């Protein structure tokens, strides 16, 4: 202690800052300032402070990743093809049922005419009163005639076998009408489902087109070659197994469809000659390639043909671009591809396409 002017003044104690306490204080300050950026987490990654942790960007796949795009196109393409098949089967069953109903109606008309004649004959012979003739009057409509005849006690005066047959045919027709109504309801639901799948697939095709345009490596502009043959469409695409699927009007699908973005290159599968480049109602802008092997190939629904009739082409040469013409309008962008061995009837080209293209590309 120092004595100053007669009184004692305590000496000022020097500051003491232990080094082992300074670092934790700084760390605590940083933690409070930065908040959730350095918040502790639980075992499952949740922030103990209650703040939402930022998702890791490295875990997300690139939206333009080629493999992801191809897989998505393949998945949506398979779903679309399955829905098309279901709708085709329903349409085919409706056509069959309509033919059955027409036959039932024809039989019923003949039976009703016979019953009406019998009722008139019974009246003319005096076996029934005039009420019977009024009730059997065909001008009221055949449905009303049979209904009235079946409610009267004149079974002994007409052909009982014909009456029984008419009742059976009437019952059969009612059942067929109920079945047709059910089929139409199923077809409507399936059509709505197909429309939803079409929108998803077209959106995926559009995204694929944008992704392909963003990639500058040009890989999507070259034909995929295998053993001297070329996949008929450029990447990205998927192959749908649609051969033999039912179509409207009792038709069956004669080829396989390859969904691909609008304008995607279409290639010659082998060396040969364009035997015809033309337009038709079903196929739209179409062409037929006569290959050196003797097989012919039918391409349909193009946006544009880049070759003309009589032109010689080589495998992998661009000959058209993917479109949606002909009866494909309003569906999805795709190439319809048929194979005609030795120029004959169409056969299922699925395995042929898998060998050249794989399931997706």
Commentary on this structure:
With 361 residues, the chain is α+β, with helices and mostly antiparallel strands. It folds into 2 domains: 66-205, Helix Hairpins (Orthogonal Bundle); 218-246 and 256-357, Glucose Permease (Domain IIA). Helices cover 42% and strands 16% of the residues. It is built from 6 helices and 12 strands. It has helices spanning 19-34, 66-124, 130-135, 142-150, 160-214, 350-357; strands at 2-4, 7-9, 225-226, 229-230, 256-259, 265-267, 272-280, 284-291, 296-305, 312-313, 318-322, 334-340. The strands form 3 sheets. Strands 5, 6, 7, 8, 9, 10, 11 and 12 form an 8-stranded antiparallel sheet that branches. Strands 1-2 form a two-stranded antiparallel ribbon. The protein has a two-stranded antiparallel sheet with strand order 3-4. Helix 2 crosses helix 4 (142-150). The longest helix has 59 residues, at 66-124. The radius of gyration is 39 Å and the shape is elongated. The model is unreliable at 1-62 and 216-220 (pLDDT under 50).
Helices, by number, come to 6
What is the CATH first-level class name of the largest domain?
A: Mainly Alpha
Provide the number of structural domains. 2
Query: Any idea what the shape is?
Result: elongated
Distance between the termini: 92 Å
Topology readout:
Layout (H helix, E strand, L loop, with lengths): L1 E3 L2 E3 L9 H16 L31 H59 L5 H6 L6 H9 L9 H55 L10 E2 L2 E2 L25 E4 L5 E3 L4 E9 L3 E8 L4 E10 L6 E2 L4 E5 L11 E7 L9 H8 L4
Antiparallel strand pairs: 1-2, 3-4, 5-12, 6-11, 7-8, 7-10, 8-9, 9-11, 9-12
Helix pairs in contact: 2-4, 2-5
